[in-house]
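Sample entry (79 residues):
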Amino acid sequence: MDAGSVTARPSSKMVWAGRILSGLVVVSLFALNTMGLVNKAESLKHFVTYGYPESAFIPISIVFFVCILVYAIPRTAIF
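Predicted structure, serialized as tokens:
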């Protein structure tokens, strides 16, 4: 690292704004996936319409939950 470079720290307002926005994204994605599992018959109908096999519905939902959790954990959000 160059000795003359200085990194600016973000303000606490910006940090909290980022946390709140990330939290809203996590909550909305979690609710979307949960509602898809609760209304499985309706969701499965649309799922098959897009060309996916019925047997892939649960595995894709599980992967979606894992992706939400990875995003929600700050150290792994970069992935």
